[in-house]
Amino acid sequence: MDNNKNSDPRFKIAHREALIGVGLAIINFVWWYGFAYGLGDQAPEDYSYIWGLPSWFVYSCIGGFILMTILVTFVVTVWFKEVPFDEEEGGAE
Amino acid sequence: MNLSVIIPLLLFLMLIFFIGLWSSRQLHASKNFLEDYFLGGRQLGGFILAMTMTATYGSASSFVGGPGVAYTQGLGWVLLAMSQVATGYFVLMILGKKFAIMARKYNAVTLIDFLKGRYNSKWVVITSALSIIIFLFSAMAAQWVGGARLIESITGLSYTSALFLFALSVLVYVIIGGFRAVALTDTVQGIVMFFGTLILLVATIIAGGGVSSIVADLSAENPNLLTPYGSNLDLTPSYVSSFWILVGVGVVGLPQVTVRAMSYNSSKAMHRALIIGTIVVGFIMLNMHLIGVFARPILPGIEVGDKVMPLIAQEVLPPWLAGIVLAAPMAAIMSTVDSLLLLVSSAIVKDVYLNYMKPDASNQRVKKLSITITSVLGILVFLMALNPPDLLIWLNLFAFGGLEAVFIWPIVMGLYWSKGNKYGALSSMVVGIGSYIAIDQLTTTPLFGMHTVVLPVLSSLVVYVLVSLFTQHKVTEHRF
Predict the structure, then answer these.
(1) B284-318: per-residue pLDDT in tens?
(2) How does the protein's chain sit in the membrane according to the entry (chain B) (predicted)?
(3) I need a surface site. Which of B247, B268, B328, B450 has the fewest CB within 10 A?
(4) Which residues in chain A have Cβ-Cβ distances shorter than 8 Å to B227?
């Protein structure tokens, strides 16, 4: 990801945001996997239930989805920066 | 057949038709026909961007097939489907602003334009264009078959007339309206999918006597339906996890999705689309697959998975509402084929004809040609779908994972690694698709318990990096 010093300053922002994307996907995966196979790996008759559904499912699938919605909203509104896309307004070299 | 189911469906088709007609008016005044027709003049706002990405991606396989498998496999399949939440943010964040900026720098209208600007290689362009034309054409035909089957099963029309109805309603707006029509209709279709699945889920839960009672019924029938391992306990964690590559992060390599990441007008639109896209994808995937699972105690013994969705809708909803809700899978199919049609057409017109045959063609000529090629392709797909040849069905198997293996690294590494070069890109494409087909043909059980897509995606990365490093002296490093 190293770039020449004279490269576009907008790219620094872009690179940072791409890395955030990778980070989010990793968090998403770990949460999804951890709850599904952590709580789901027992005999079905021993499952605990939330809202009538097995708790592994509620945490992993519904909880994971809500978590990602919150995280994406957070990083986009707080960390992401707006940059112009057109050459003439953009950070010319 | 029930007329009150058919009428809402026909109204939906007409609505789509008029949106297409309406957006074609903007094309008439266009100065840069090519960019307008194939990319909507890069003017998409956040909401439309999110909807068109979601709708393009959620195709017949996920919309009609998905609930069918969930019906057989239980909650384990919903778990697998939820790996798709990642597509809602991952594609736009990874390609992100860098892709938007570079695409404008290279003046790219198609994904292949971007690759051409980045690698400056005729062979990369030709290989990419061929992969898109061959694989997406087959994928498109397979989706048309799905669309026609759906109309057939709902209305009771013959397959041929159903196909004709479907073809007509899609072709007209794509041909005359181009990308803007596709994006706008995708938005309407996305909204229909969003509310359609919600209504159907709620009605299914009510018909089943509440979630607890449905879950108790499932547990009484086969407790495995409630585990993450599938009804026969054959969904292993590694197999289910490998879908994160196929339908989650690997979607970065799908041309029909990628091209949308160069179509938005500002970073504000991209930010909005990230939030909306994540919510919409997650919501639709969760609801739709849960419907499949919950339908099981209400309508036991459905043999053909594809029929679960139409049958449950007609069972739990009043007919007129079933008609509206069944417009949702219809919408999913239409919004996928319209994007594919335009993409294949752009590969022929822009990437092959304008690049290598007649670079100085006038705006007027390009316009005529684009519309002609799109029409000819549409008619060709129609004829193919009437009686799909075996080759086409075979090719369609590779359309999703195969294209990901071809494009993911040349795009992603091309954006972020300045040492990546054309030799690396070309060999990674060849290895990607070659190993995909080889593994698929030579193995009968999943390799290492994972989906076929995993190994080709990994090996094409290794090849990209190694070949780029070994051939460093041959090309000057790319300056972004």
Answers:
(1) 999 999 999 999 999 998 887 778 888 899 899 99
(2) Multi-pass membrane protein
(3) B268
(4) 40, 44, 54
